[in-house]
Specification:
Strands 1-6 form a two-stranded antiparallel ribbon. It has a two-stranded antiparallel sheet with strand order 2-5. A two-stranded antiparallel ribbon has the order 3-4. The relative contact order is 0.27. The protein has four helices and six strands, in the order αββααββαββ. It has a domain at 32-93: Alpha-Beta Plaits (2-Layer Sandwich), CATH 3.30.70. It is of the alpha+beta class. The N and C termini lie far apart (42 Å).
Length: 106
């Protein structure tokens, strides 16, 4: 596994603004994004980590092992991970009508 620099320092302002967004999350059978984290763990470059603007992809310790974890709760549905993942780990599509994130101007 590659060594990554700590990118938490540059994400703080973005994470703070996620609280002002409205989410209407669909049930799991209609999820707009599905990530096969087993494929992620074998990925040679992990572009999703640096590509996701809200850092939904991270390596974390789970049950004593370091594993890729996808934090779907913060996803802003930009689709960057789907474009950057050339390993086939990400399955992404637009949410069904009335579901997903709701942006407001202002």
């Amino acid at each position: 596994m590659s060594n990554f620099t700590d990118m938490d320092d540059d994400i703080g302002p973005i994470k703070n603004k996620l609280g002002v967004l409205n989410y209407n999350i669909d049930d799991e059978t209609h999820a707009h994004i599905k990530v096969n984290t087993e494929v992620c763990e074998k990925c040679p470059h992990h572009l999703c980590i640096s590509g996701c603007p809200v850092r939904c992809f991270n390596f974390m310790e789970v049950d004593g092992e370091v594993k890729m974890v996808f934090q779907y709760e913060d996803c802003v549905e930009c689709g960057t991970c789907d474009i950057m993942c050339d390993q086939g780990a990400v399955s992404w599509h637009n949410p069904r009508g009335s579901f997903g994130i709701q942006y407001e101007m202002g």
